[in-house]
Structure formats: structure tokens, C-alpha cells
Amino acid sequence: MLDDKNNSTNKKQDNRNLSDVFKELQEIRYSQSSQINTSSDNVKRTKTSKQSKSKPKAKVSFVYDNNVSFDDKRGIKLSNLIIVFVILVLIIIAVFPMNVFSMETETAESNSDETVETSSIPTDFEINRKALNMQKIISENSSFEKVKEQVTEERAIEYETQTQSNATLPRGEQVVLQQGIEGKENVSLVKTYENGEFIEEIILAKETLEEPTPEILDIGTSDFLANLKIHIGDTIYLTSTTKLRKEPSEDSEEVAEIKESLDVKLLELPNENWCKVSFDSVEGYLPTSKLTSAAKTPSIVEKNRIQRILINVNIEMELNKSTGLTLKDYQKIFTGIPNDTNGVFQQNAEVFYNIDKKYNVNGIFIAAIAIHESGWGTSQIANDKNNLFGYGSYDETPYDSSYEFTSFADGIETVAKSLVKYYLNPAGTKIYDGETASAWYYNGPTLEGVNQRYASDSDWHTKVYSYMEMLYNRLS
């Protein structure tokens, strides 16, 4: 009979669910409570009329094993059940959070002859406010999409850059001799995208359509050119008077002598010590140590301008041309001359400049005549008649026959116009105010040509030139 009961219990135990477990826990607790409170006066009992006729109450014994009673194993089974219960609750809360988890147990009914009043077992639990949202996590991680596609593209092939040294370029400077051109190729490849973003590619094959053209560069190596910041064909200047040689050697034949500050054109650079230049159409070699540039020596340009003017000063120079001097140049020339005791020429420096530009005549030549004829503006004719030239005078009656002018400026301009019209230009030459040259006394536009008809002194032209040379030299 006990075996059948045990077998029945085991079958129920196999099929029991969570509710059965709770009921079983309640029955255990109530069974223990009944035994403890049998002798207590606080327990209320309700007996039926059948109680006195019933047999003595037998001890309840639950069997969970074939031969082991609950009394023997109840301590172990209870702790195991509690552990299982706690684990189940934690799993339920983690996976399916709820606002309130509660569980009530039903009051066990006693046998037909006894009813026990009990209170329900409260099992409220706190809300898990940090529960994992498994659905959201799975959704987010399953949204990644990786796509691969095979394509063929036309792509550019980069060109190579080839360099070569060039001693005729400033060091570090580059000149493109041949422009590089990219080639073309077809490329078969597999591209990988993740969520629409390109992440990698694998090239399968390439087919060249057009070969690239390499870029060729000349790289300069000349320190001389780099130091002066110049190139072949530029203008450079002499730092001192130097001989122009036929070959790049100090022992070579001399071609010409070039004065300080004069300019030459750079033609070639055979080495860092010598260069080939052109000086007023004359070619030769100069040592690079005697040269500079406007970039390195800015003041050399102004010095060169003056030197270019002075180099053309000679007794055979043409006088029917402007000097090319500026007003500052004229002021520099005539300021502070010791022989100009009355300051006549210093005061009229601008007058000489004006006639130089207005009548296209050499103003220094006009001033040199005035200095020679008036003794630096100290003659009686100059002081009494503002006539620095003795203009109109005859050898027999120089003072009486000379012209009188309202001012030195008036006299300077009158003489300049007369020389331009009658002495310095060939007949028919267009001169000033729409007039043409009469050339009545024209014998060439030089000092010697003017001397033939202007002065009776045959050495007059050399004396005038000496003053011209002195005035020009005041520029340097």
C-alpha cells in the first residue's frame, strides 16, 4: 500500500508545476504549525460533531522517494526548493520585467473534521527599473548590412617625375622640360560596403589603356645665380672696373674695359668662376666675383643710370639731344660749386633743365658756354645785361653790341633756341613750336661743328668741353 502511494507521489512530482510547488510549501509550513500549536491556548479550533467519533489523527508524511519519508529529508528538500524558486524569480524578472510580482497562496483546507484559519503569504517584489531590453539589443545588432559588388572602372595611372641637374639654373630652382601626363587603365575589383559606407576594395585585374608620360624636371645647381637671384639673359652690373676677356681666363686676350656700375647681359655660365656676357654688342668673359645684381645691390641701378650717361660724354658727342638727366641731377650738378661765387648757376639749375627737355638740346653744353663766356657769371655784360653768353657781341665792340635781357633765364632760353635753330640741326628738322631748323650755321651737331661759325677762337670747343666734363663728373 505504501509502495503504491509512493509511486503515485512520484508521478505527481514529475508533473507538478510552479503552483504545485507553492502549495507543497504551504502544506509543509501549516503541518509544522499544527504540531507546534497543539498545546497552545491561542490556537482556535473548530470541531465538527464527527470529531469525537473519528480515529486518532495520524501523522502526515509526504513521500518523495520510494523508501524515504518527508520527515527524514524535509530540511534538505526545503532548502533546495527555496533555491530553485529564487533562481526562477530572477530569470523571470530579467527577461520579463513587471510592475509588481506577487503571489498568493490559497488557504489549505483541512480534513472534513477540522478547519484551520490562516493568512495569505505576501510575496511583493520591487520593480526592476534597469531591466535589459533584449528586443532592442537584438534589433540594433541585427541592422548591420554588409554588401559586396564586383565592378570595372577606368582609372588614372600616375606619371613618374624624372629630375636632372642643371648648372645654368639657380640652386634649387626647378624648370619643367616635359609636362607629365597621366595614363589610363581598366580595373576590375570587388568593393565592400557596410550600411551604405565603402570600407574596402580588392583589385582582381588591371588592363592598361594608355601609358603615362613622365614629367622631366631640371634642378638648378648654380650658387652664383642663386646668390644674385638672376637667370641666363638677365642684366648684371660691374662692382669695379674690369677687363672683358676673350676666353674665361685671366691670361686671355683683353676685349674691352668696362667701368664700375655699368651693365652687361648674361649669356652663358660655363662654370661658377666665369660667365659670358654682352657689353654693347661686344661679347666676352668676366669673372663672376666682379658682378652683382639689382636684387642683391638695389642702389646699383641708379649708379648705372649715371654711368651710362657719363660713358657717352666725350668731345665728339652729339649736342642736339637731351642729356637724359633729371631735375635732381641738374640741382646736384650746380649746387655748391666754389667758382659760382654769385650763385648764378645754382639759382638757374632748373632753367638749364627746362631748356634741355623743351628744346631737345644738351643743357650741360648750354651751361658750359655760359660759364666760359661770362667767367662764372662775373663779367660786366653778365652783371649789367643778364647776358651770360655775350650774345650779339662783336670783337670790336663787345659790350655795346651785346644783347640785354630782362633776366638770366630770358637770356639762357634765347641762346638755346638760336643754337637749336641755326647751329645744331640740319635744315628742315622739326624743332620747337612747330618750327623747322634753318641751319644757317650748321656744320654738324658737335662742339667742333658749332665752333666753326659760333666763335672766332678755334680752340673754343675744347675749352667749352672741359667745363662740360667737369659738370658731368659732379654726378658721380
Account of the protein in words:
The chain has 476 residues and is α+β, with helices and mostly antiparallel strands. The chain folds into four domains: 2-115, no CATH class; 146-219, Resuscitation-promoting factor rpfb fold; 229-307, SH3 Domains (SH3 type barrels, Roll); 313-473, Lysozyme. The protein has helices spanning 2-15, 18-36, 70-95, 134-141, 223-228, 300-310, 327-334, 344-347, 349-358, 363-374, 380-385, 398-401, 408-422, 447-454, 460-473; strands at 46-47, 114-115, 146-157, 161-170, 174-178, 183-194, 197-210, 215-222, 235-238, 242-245, 254-258, 263-268, 274-279, 282-287, 291-292. Strands 14-13-12-9-15 form a five-stranded antiparallel β-sheet, covered by helices on one side. Strands 3-6-7 form a three-stranded antiparallel β-sheet, with no helix packed on it. Strands 4-8-5 form a three-stranded mixed β-sheet. Helix 10 (363-374) packs across helix 15 (460-473) and helix 14 (447-454) crosses helix 15 (460-473). It starts with a helix and ends with a helix. Mean pLDDT is 82; it is low at 1-15, 36-73 and 98-125.
The appropriate CATH architecture of the largest domain is Orthogonal Bundle
Number of self-contained structural domains: 4
- The percentage of residues in β strands lies in 15-25%
**CATH class categorisation of the largest domain:** Mainly Alpha
Low-confidence stretches: 1-15, 36-73, 98-125
Average pLDDT works out at 82
Helicity range: 25-40%
Structural class: alpha+beta
Report strand order across the widest sheet.
Answer: 14-13-12-9-15
Q: Rg to the nearest angstrom?
A: 63 Å
Terminal-residue CA separation: 149 Å
Number of strands: 15
